[in-house]
Amino acid sequence: FRVDPSVRHSVWSLTIGAFFTWVAIFGANQAMVQRAVTCPTLKKAQIAMWLNFPGLCIILYLCCFIGMFMAAFYEKCDPVTTKAVTDSNQLLPLFVMDILSQVVGLPGLFVAGLFSGALSTISSGLNSISACVLEDICRAYFKSHFREIRARLLSQIFALAFGMMCLAMTYVASLLGNILQAALSLHGIFGGPLLGVFTLGMFFPCANKWGAYSGLFGSLILAFWIGIGTAVQKPFLKKAIMSVEYCNFTAFNASLLIKPAASNVTVVRDAVFPLYKLSYMWYSTTALAACVVIGLIVSFITGATKPSELDARVICPIFDILFPFLPESIRKPLRFGVVHEG
């Protein structure tokens, strides 16, 4: 419960920080938005999102329960400390082999499930980014109309090219440590600034395009700075499970057991730049706040947009939605001059 942004997983980072991470994933991520806009009506898109919600919760709860069970299973013999595995991402396959290796075919089915889930996610991402490049770059800046066969061929070429780039990036991904943390970190680094731009445009009538550009790129630079700095300096993370008390040392080379001295840990932790200690769960929230603050400052410097000149449909009357019970005399000033009637 400590209000410390450097704590990797706290009540606050897993509620407030994760809230903005998932809002960015569902509200500003191209793969999710593309799924929503393929629905014929807004109502059906909302139904699709609500149908997705319980399935996602089940998956996340299963992951949590698996992690808790693994922590209990390896409580007195940590495979990472004993070098039974070289990376924490290998713990789950090791656990499956420890528990299910006597059941013929089941470990293979587990691995097949992992790969099918990963390939499904990758394919939808590649499809989304190729469609985005075709529609938002090629059609917007080069040629507005393509024949259907040429548009399909271009999208396939883009998907192939980005797929090759993904293969090249696997080496970088192998250096990012825990794969779930790396994925959520990237969602925060890229999704936070995008969510900030949407927030700036939807809730702040005074924002202009220069504020949006400045907020987007400023928050993106900040997020990259934190993310890359954390990956390079690697601040010390206290692990809960490190005991080797009940290990069978006939299966391990005891000389490989490496325990860092407490003094070294302290020195390393103190040497890390404070911003690099920020929990990855706060990346999206930090980028969102930076985008809004930078965007508003630049908008006021360059000339704020007049609310009377705005199309009211692009501004969300947030106070009318959250506090509809308030009298009109209070809610009207909170619209900041935007006329929503009619």
UniProtKB/TrEMBL annotation:
PROSITE patterns: NA_SOLUT_SYMP_3 (PS50283). GO terms for molecular function: symporter activity. This is Sodium-dependent multivitamin transporter. It is a multi-pass membrane protein. The keyword Transmembrane helix applies. Belongs to the sodium:solute symporter (SSF) (TC 2.A.21) family. It comes from the Eukaryota. InterPro entries: Na/Glc_symporter_sf, Na/solute_symporter, Sodium:Solute_Symporter_SSF. It is found in: Cell membrane. Its main location: membrane. One of its GO terms (cellular component) is plasma membrane.
